[in-house]
Amino acid sequence: LMNTQDVLLQLFVVRWFSVVLTSATVVVSYLIAIELFPEDRFMIIAIPTFVIFLPMFAYIGASANNDTLTALLSSLLIWQLIRAFGKGVSKRSAFVLCTMALLSVLAKKTALFTIPLLIVAIPVYLWSRDIAVPMTYGPVAAASCMLAALFLGVVLTCRGADAEGWFEQPEPWMDTRSDHVARSGGHSLHIADGTQGLCRRLEQYLPYNSVRELRGETVSLSAWVRTSSGKQEGSLVIVDSEARSTRLFTATETWSPQSLTHRVSSEAKSLRVVLRLSPCRAEDTGDLYFDDVTLLDREREWFNLVANGSAEVGSLRIGPRLERLARHVPLGQLLDARSYDLSSVRRYVLYTLLTFAGFWAN
Questions:
Q1: CB count in 10 Å sphere of residue 150
Q2: Helical H runs in the chain?
Q3: Are residues 308 and 167 both part of a single domain?
Q4: Please, are residues 202 and 191 in contact by the beta-carbon 8 Å criterion?
Q5: Each residue of 107-142: pLDDT tens digit?
Q6: DSSP letter at 313?
Q7: Residues 180 and 275 in one domain
Q8: Total domains present in the chain
Q9: Model pTM score
Q10: Could you tell me if 186 and 142 lie in one domain?
């Protein structure tokens, strides 16, 4: 969202955003106290005060993480649930409750408790209001619960055709995880060569803490490579914020090892590993596969700095799917072209998704 390469500035902005969300959570706790104890001023003040001075909540609320968003949305859900029990459930309140539960789960998977919470709240609400449920609704409710449980199970356990931790460039469309060939395990990283003249690549950024420890050190990037057919030129690249190193190679239909060394700049603020087709060719010469990708520090050769180097862990990666869908939605008829363009609409979709990216990372 920020046009800057300063990682520290990005970190400070994200922490500021976390503080804002934490402050909003305290306000919601105050509203909950009013609903529960409308006549007790002590409890109205004590509950939000307890939340403010809870050590772990204050610590997490001032750091860069997605727990703050989850806490806020879950608190809003509980607040709305208390209001529904006190004033009755309407179509509007039911919609709000379902929306809050969905957003909470998207923020982080630990908020899945909101789903059974709502399920348990339904019979409790009916019992507290002395509402009789027709017998014909029982099988429908049971079937709905089973379908909901099945859907959640599929969403949480299904692994897609993208490799966790790797991002495709320049635009997401190809499957980055393949079980067609593999040197070890059952999968490998995959770069398709179907678009003429367009260089495809996979990238993985190292965490800032790792980059800070690697400053001034020499790292070694290794990978096994092969093609689907014929020969294909590719490259291994290590890029930090100050310098880059590249290793060109020609892959064949047989797995072969490739390696690259790079001395990380003492001023490096970021570092990424790039696997790519290089140079860009005008004709289709075959897909490229990578397996057993490792990035080792000479002082810690036992520790692989690259995550998921064999693509054994899949990812749902719905972000590229939403962007691809947004590209085909005729939004020009709904939005004034003088205020919005298609590229902006795509970014809005991705920004909204990134707000809840913690669901796919935790």
A1: 10
A2: 7-36, 41-52, 55-61, 67-87, 91-107, 114-128, 137-157, 208-214, 318-327, 342-355, 358-361
A3: yes
A4: yes
A5: 887 788 888 888 888 777 777 766 655 555 566 566
A6: S
A7: yes
A8: 3
A9: 0.53
A10: no
